[in-house]
Amino acid sequence: MSILIDASTKVICQGITGSAGKFHTLGCRDYGTQLVGGVTPGKGGQDVEGIPVFDTVEEAVAETGADATMIFVPPPFTADAILEALDAGIKVIAAITEGVPVIDMVRVYEKVRASDAVLIGPNCPGLITPGQCKIGIMPGYIHNPGKVGVMSRSGTLTYEAVWQTSALGLGQSTCVGLGGDPIVGTSFIDLLKRYQADDQTEAILMIGEIGGSAEEEAAAFVKEHVTKPVAAFIAGRTAPPGKRMGHAGAIISGGKGTATEKVAALEAAGITVAPTPADMGQAVVDAMKG
Amino acid sequence: MKIHEYQGKELFRRAGVPVLDGVVATTPDEAAAAYEKLGGPIAVVKAQIHAGGRGKGTIIDNPKQHGVVLAKSADEARAAAAGLLGKKLVTIQTGPAGQTVNKVFVEAGCDIARELYLGIVLDRAVAKPVLMVSTEGGMEIETVAEKTPGLIHKEHFDPAVGLEAYQVRKLCKKLGIGGAAAKAAAKFMPAMCRFYVDSDCELAEVNPLVITGDNQMIALDAKITFDNNALFRHPDYTDLRDLAEEEESELRAGNAGLSYVKLEGNIGCLVNGAGLAMSTMDIIKYHGGQPANFLDVGGSANTEQVTEAFRILLSDPNVKGVLVNIFGGIARCTTIAGALIEASKTVGFDVPLVVRLEGTEVEEGRKMLAESDVDVINATDITDAAKKIVAATGV
Description:
The structure holds two protein chains of two kinds.
Chain A: E1 10-14, H1 19-31, E2 34-39, E3 47-48, E4 51-54, H2 57-64, E5 68-71, H3 75-87, E6 92-95, H4 102-113, E7 118-120, E8 126-129, E9 133-136, E10 145-152, H5 155-167, E11 172-177, H6 188-197, E12 203-209, H7 214-225, E13 230-235, H8 259-268, E14 272-273, H9 280-289
Parallel strand pairs in A: 1-2, 1-5, 2-4, 5-6, 6-7, 10-11, 10-12, 12-13, 13-14
Antiparallel strand pairs in A: 3-4, 8-9, 8-11
Helix pairs in contact in A: 3-4, 5-9, 6-7, 7-8
Chain B: H1 5-14, E1 22-25, H2 28-38, E2 43-47, E3 58-59, E4 62-66, E5 68-71, H3 74-84, E6 88-90, E7 99-100, E8 104-108, E9 112-123, E10 128-134, H4 141-147, E11 152-156, H5 165-175, H6 179-198, E12 201-212, E13 217-219, E14 223-226, H7 248-255, E15 259-262, E16 267-271, H8 274-286, E17 293-296, H9 303-314, E18 321-328, H10 333-347, E19 353-359, H11 362-371, E20 377-378, H12 382-392
Parallel strand pairs in B: 16-18, 18-19, 19-20
Antiparallel strand pairs in B: 1-8, 2-5, 2-8, 3-4, 3-6, 6-7, 9-10, 9-12, 10-11, 12-13, 12-14, 15-17
Helix pairs in contact in B: 2-3, 5-6, 9-10, 10-11
Pathway (chain A): Carbohydrate metabolism; tricarboxylic acid cycle; succinate from succinyl-CoA (ligase route): step 1/1
Pfam families (chain A): CoA_binding (PF02629), Ligase_CoA (PF00549)
Family (chain A): Belongs to the succinate/malate CoA ligase alpha subunit family.
């Protein structure tokens, strides 16, 4: 098994005719993902290297049976694209777009949470179940099917973690990039529940960063509800307060959201915390030894 | 994006949030004229910088000169402006170097009965904006939150609906506000919440929010930060940006599409991805070095961007070495290696350069560097890279 997506997942791309949308759609298809269609309003009837393009998500779902989407539309239209996917009954929505206004996400978040759909992102690399389905922009070849559930607020740092767990022969069950924005559709806790219930996942690696309190909340959840080994890494121990470190959500504000606080909360919950980004894979090994 | 108090108050005025009359001045004479225009008998001369704590803050080399000064005559207003303009003001938020005061805001005085606090931010934990008020006006709200959290009262609101009337009543009760002042609050608080949403703010703070002797509610300060991601909806905000308030190298990086934050150390970092960039800084520190910056060249960096990134890094006189850490995903190692070689030709490196490449097309990328004239110290992984750059910079 795996979580959220597998070989049977049928994926469309919203924004398929844009340069990034097209490039990554083909990348996902090459990986083996069932990439069944795309949506660009006004371009219905065309195709992108054999992949049919529709005017609306509703139409795409009716014609292809798609149950997942990846969104590459520009930031001003991303919230609308998410709501359209939700309306069409899509179950897994990965919003890759960076730069969505926060207030748009406040509106979208409430609607997504009231539904049975899952929103990953925005401002994320997407998600992948190695060997089965890749939805997003991550380099597929570094992943190996295996036992570690990887969830992260950062893109390239996730690749680093995947690389390390692959090199150690652990492999990954499903890797999810949650996104670097202040409001994202899915939290660490949402995924902890799924990894805990997933047979294939034997250990969980959580990659957090400064800003907000998602890691602290996850730590409390792990302590109460997660029996599988959990390892973690927090980026930004040297980040100065009040400065936004690349990601819109990576900021220490009012003295809150520091790496020190997060590491302390994780360790107090019995989670193995990697001291440096070079030790993420080893931290999983250590956590699995108990 | 941050704006000045005087700009924020103009936006408040348009949004129906009560403020006092005021005039912005860039010379002492303008400040004196502003005093005359406001008609006295008292006015307040306030330094305009993008940092809080101005009232308690002082000018470098002149500890008696505070950032906010009461003036009882045109001459006093002129003297206050002369003591502030062109000088560096140090507050708890500016850091020891301070920030140059280029403008002062001369504002009418008022009869203050009570000083309160009001702030609106996004509560990430519940994904909703939250209005916070406190009886502890004029204090650093972070201090209040730490020492007496019970004195901060919060109400979340739906951006589409705004603050409901009952929420204002709840807050007024907790603040001990009744009668005419409560009526003023019933206008003020929803207007602020509406302003926060309509203007795409990240932070809107009024500290102090005052109740006057005649029960008016007035914003005596305005601290506003806009959501950069929403600026496309507000083309008029472009004029509000004050480039003099921004770090020059950060501004330059922003123009090149790079995400850069200047730090105090001496090891320059060039990395792809925000999380990897942060953890590269962390591992440098872990092995005893000090990072000079955060720099994320992004997932699709081209030669021009990498070249500009090197120019920015090397223009920092503190930088004694550079660490390049790239995990090629969509961005290929060959692209980065090519850009590095090009950048070395146009910029010229005179400090040690440690390069760690991994991921897509890594072998070809390493080969390109090995065959080039660029003097590179190769690293096999992040730990190796961090140790080598720390050793090379002689820390």
